[in-house]
Write a structure and sequence with these properties.
Length: 206
């Protein structure tokens, strides 16, 4: 007597392939978007609205936390690797510490520059306020092994950010273009201990 065979199930369906668009890098996605807008210029207005909505999401408190985290992430080992004698000469611990901290806050600084150059004033101001608050929060960190080598970095970085704000994201003012004023009360509110020094500097810009 023959044993009945179990009916064979249907072969499993092949998984749908992942969209090619999902596998693109950021640079490739940007290239596709540029070609799409060139071929269909009527989409530009809609893309502009989407981009503005995306760039409008700036949380001042989050910016401050990012600055504090970035500075706190600089470790003594990083300083030891950077300072001392090397093939290019000699880097003092203070110079090395300042370089490391500048690199740490560079993404925030770059965001401020980008918003200013795009004319997104509200987003630029939120970024500036958050960055100032973050720098002020870490100014007196006595337990930070690296910050002790560059204790004036937070106030100097605040000055540089204010300068970028005043110059619309440029390193220095453009000829014939008045410098952007610092909002009234901003220094007293966010960096009160630095306000007299920075305030005098800002007044000399006018």
């Amino acid at each position: 007597m023959t044993t009945p065979q179990k009916p064979r199930g249907r072969p499993s369906a092949r998984k749908p392939r992942k969209s090619l668009l999902d596998g693109l890098t950021d640079a490739e996605s940007a290239s596709v978007l540029r070609h799409l807008l060139h071929a269909h210029p009527q989409l530009r207005e809609e893309c502009e609205a989407l981009a503005r909505d995306l760039l409008s999401r700036v949380d001042q408190d989050e910016v401050a936390r990012d600055v504090v985290s970035a500075v706190n992430a600089v470790r003594l080992g990083d300083l030891q690797d950077r300072a001392g004698r090397h093939s290019r000469g000699y880097t003092s611990p203070t110079e090395a510490a300042r370089e490391l901290f500048q690199e740490a806050i560079e993404p925030t600084q770059d965001a401020l520059i980008r918003y200013l150059r795009l004319g997104l004033d509200a987003q630029a101001l939120a970024t500036l306020r958050g960055a100032l608050a973050g720098l002020y929060a870490i100014r007196d960190r006595k337990d930070h092994e690296v910050l002790s080598w560059a204790s004036d970095f937070p106030s100097d970085a605040a000055f540089c950010l204010l300068r970028l704000w005043a110059c619309d994201g440029e390193p220095k003012p453009k000829e014939g273009i008045p410098m952007r004023p610092i909002p009234d009360g901003l220094l007293d509110e966010l960096v009160p201990a630095w306000s007299p020094y920075l305030g005098d500097t800002v007044r000399r810009w006018k």
